[in-house]
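User: My instructor asked us to take a sequence, write out its structure as tokens, and then describe one feature of it. I'm not sure where to start. Here is the sequence I was given:
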Amino acid sequence: MTSTSAVTAIPRSGAAPPRVLAIAGSDSGGGAGIQADLKTAAAFGVHGMTAVTAVTAQNSVGVQGAWELPAEAVRAQIVSVVSDIGVDAVKTGMLATPELVQVVAEELRGLSAPLVVDPVGVSKHGHRLLEPAAVSVLRDLLLPLAMVTTPNLNEVALLTGVEVRDEAGLWRAAEAMLSLGPRWVLVKGGHLPGEAVDLLTDGTTEVVLRADRADNRHTHGTGCTLASAIAAGLAMGLDVPAATRAAKDYVTGALRVGFALGAGIGPVDHGWRWRAAPATPVAPAGGEAPAPPVAPSHRLAR
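Assistant: Let's start with the prediction itself. The structure tokens for your sequence are:
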């Protein structure tokens, strides 16, 4: 079986890499949101694009403010990218308001590219990022369009009312989420004690993903990064289980070496594979610069 632990897209000479559109909010601290989406896209070798839904003032200790963009500004960004550049996968994150959720659903309906919905409800620091009135709109309009949705346990409770207290409850959560219309659901069990256990299922196939819990408090951006990594895998042509395994491997590595920034919770390390690769010699002055290091990987030609 081919390993998906370090999947990277390598386009043919002169060909564009796979294209992933992230529709999400901006994190001024650079650890989550569209900043995390673009770093993840780069790590997988795909071309990341954005439609910004909101601007936040946030750092390692919390979110100090959030300002949503007008719905038509978000629509214009999506139309601009899709109509000219095109997309191979789409990922949504912070959508904030009913109007933004509705506009995004309208523009993605009928799109053939797979959609990964990260139903962002609350920030790592407890700041609410989805208005109460937007919950039903996301549930009714956006989730039925999703190839995969990636709720954590708090988001499962927000969307379905199902509360999970142990690993056995992941199956009830998945069943409840699937009833809302997505093709696949990845229920993230990271808030449970013990191993970091996630359940991926379409109601027929079940994949349980386990990883040792990282002894590291610097976990900012985990959810955004995981959803974007799945979208990158789908854009490269992986099926949902393979894309999710590759994403889980990448995020697990990034969590282990998340680093301190500021006084609070630092980000996961999106560049951990590059830093783990053998060092590249520095070119002599005036000489040709060496190619950047590449970690051992299973590469998908396109």
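For the description part of your assignment, you could build on this observation: The chain has one domain: 15-301. Try explaining in your own words what that tells you about the chain.
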